[in-house]
Specification:
Blueprint: H1 2-65, E1 84-85, E2 88-89, H2 125-139, H3 146-151, H4 156-169, H5 174-181
Amino acid sequence: MLFTKVEEIDRMQHKLEAKVDISASVLDQMIKDQQTLAKQIETTGQAVAQLTIRQMRTEEEIQGSTASSETSTIPPFRPRRQGTSRGGQQGRNPFAHNRDHQPDRSLPKGFAPKMNFPRFNGKNPRIWKDKCQDYFQLMNIPESMWATAASLHMDDNAEKWMQVYKLKHGLGTWTELMTAVE
């Protein structure tokens, strides 16, 4: 009986060694793939940098040739400076929520910073609502999609509540959903 157990342990040891070998080969392949991806990312980054430099030069040439005319274009990738000084802020308060202001025209059309949609766990619904509206405005999301987008970003008890709410009432409009959430 002891020999049977020893043979069984030996078989299990061989199986484990085989699995370790497979894992090592998979890990080696992953490292190679990671190195390949790193090279591709570096190459892509260099290409993007070259294209950006080329575009900036083209825009400078265009701006130089149209400097005498009344209509000049604002080159992309250069944010317009607001009225600020070293002593402090002048002009509008950067923390004030003004949803009616015009977007900054110095950014290329379609530009949006990479940021995640605000998550909701059931706490502070008014703050979450405000963050959602800021996100929708920043990302230029049509109001018809607001309720759906918000419903996809709920966690924990809020997520469970959302499932029950949708079954009973349907998703509805943004206003209806926010009234229910609050």
